Every structure is written in structure tokens, then in C-alpha cells.
Amino acid sequence: MNWLLVVAGAAVGAPLRFLTDRLVQSRHDSVFPWGTFTVNVAGSLILGLLTGAVTAGAASPHVQLLLGTGLCGALTTYSTFSYETLRLAVDGARFYAAANAVASVVAGLGAAFAGVACARGLWG
Fold first, then answer.
1. For the CA atoms of 108, 118, 75, 40, what is the dihedral angle to 10 degrees?
2. Is the dihedral of CA 60, 61, 62, 67 positive or negative?
């Protein structure tokens, strides 16, 4: 049963990542990977909120498997973040590469902490 929850979440998360990435990137005329940045920060926020909800007893471990492991696991992408950062550096856009690395880590952690804080506010 657990693996079905993960698969179901991933079946939604993977296409959502692709579509969101393409939509966001198409709206920016920049080499900065805004699409990947957006899905990674959004996934961090969702995972923080979910972690807080599970800790408070407002969500079950099954919901954590579905949304945390499945959806967020497929929505977010460390490999694409790494590849795009490396491509920026190799292509001579070192400022964008450094900005992507720093901003992604800071924004991702900030979003996760914000999600946990929101969950605490909602579910104590």
C-alpha cells in the first residue's frame, strides 16, 4: 500500500514539475533557471507545511508518503538544479551560477521553515 501512495504522488508531481518549469521559464527572458528554482522552493514550502502537520498530528504518515515522498519527491529536483548550475558556470554565466546555488539553498530552507511555522500556527 505504501508504495502505491508514493507512486500516486509522483504521478502528479512529475508532470506538475515539467509543466510548471516550462510555464515559469517561458515568462522570463533570462538564462537563470527560474522554473527549477520555483518548483524547488514550492516543494520545500509544501514539505515544511506537511512536516509540521504530521508532527502536530494533523496529517497521517500515509499523507506524508503521498505528498511528501511522492508529490514533493517528483516535483522538486536536485539533479536538474545541479546540472543547470553547472551549465551556467561552464557557459560563462558564473554570476548566475553562484546566484542560483545561493538563492536556491537560502530560499529552499526559508520556505521549509516558513511551512513548518505555518503548520505550527494552524495546528499548534
1. -10
2. positive
pTM assigned to the model: 0.95
The residue type at 70: G
Task: Name the burial class of residue 80, with classes exposed (0-12), middle (13-18) and buried (19+) by CB atoms within 10 angstroms of its CB.
Answer: middle
Rounded Cα gap, residues 16 and 119, in angstroms: 23
* Cα separation, 65 vs 51, whole angstroms: 11
Side chain identity at residue 100, one-letter code: N
Is the pLDDT at 124 greater than 90, yes or no? no
Residue type, 85: T
C-alpha cell, 105: 539553498
Do residues 50 and 114 make contact, with C-beta atoms less than 8 angstroms apart? no
